[in-house]
From TrEMBL:
SUPFAM superfamilies: S-adenosyl-L-methionine-dependent methyltransferases. Residues 39-126 form the Methyltransferase domain. It comes from Bradyrhizobium cytisi. It comes from the Bacteria. One of its GO terms (molecular function) is methyltransferase activity. Coiled coil: none annotated. The keyword Ligase does not apply. Keywords: Methyltransferase, Transferase. This is Class I SAM-dependent methyltransferase. PANTHER family: METHYLTRANSF_11 DOMAIN-CONTAINING PROTEIN, METHYLTRANSFERASE TYPE 11 DOMAIN-CONTAINING PROTEIN. GO terms for biological process: methylation.
Amino acid sequence: MGRFASTASTYEHLRPPYPGAFFRSVAQKLGLSERCALIDLGTGPGLLALGFAPYVGRIVGVDPEIAMLEAARQAAARAGQELTLLAGKAETLASEIGTFDIVTIGRALHWMDRDATLARLDGLVARDGAIVICASFSVTDGRNPWLDGYNEIRRRWSPANLWEAAGRGTRTHRDLPAFFRGSAFAPTELVTVEIRHTVSMQDLAQRTLTYSSSSPEALGDNVEAMLHDVESHLASFSRDGAIAETIVSTAQIVKR
């Protein structure tokens, strides 16, 4: 079982969303059209692939987790969208797959081997193409006052080795200049879209189970105990069972 197999059924609906304005803004910045081909590496349930679908002509999603690919397949069917899905890792994609105008990577870069990924990207990105590193997360500037306690409970219940690995991955993900240093690519423009929405207390608690360090597989028999702790913490921030959340979605554009 892969690290995200036990999260596939809920990941799509519970992680911080990418709003429609995010995809429109990135598509406009890059001048996307139906002539463009896009490949989404570490596609998971297809959030980025399907979000960009209205703006490109061909879409491919790649993921090593079969359960995630099935979730993406179902999401594409619901959306009536054609989506080619490949099982595998970005680092080992066959050269026969060709080149793409846009390569998107979401919450997956920190799981990839840096040197192998950079070498593969060099042959995967078309001459005038771009890599787009995307993220969507709760802001940490105090506008989500429930967040620190929420993360502390996740840390307390997560196996120490998984929590430490998640922390290292987050730092790797955000230090993109270091990731691309010495390669043919460099970060250029950053697109940022911020939204404020409400999420039910139960859904926000269940979101903890979509992270590898606090997934059902990682927690085992402790799932219900952790959820109880999270919901107890969130109760003091809830109004009629809903929690206000400010989310920022970012797209770092990377080019040769």
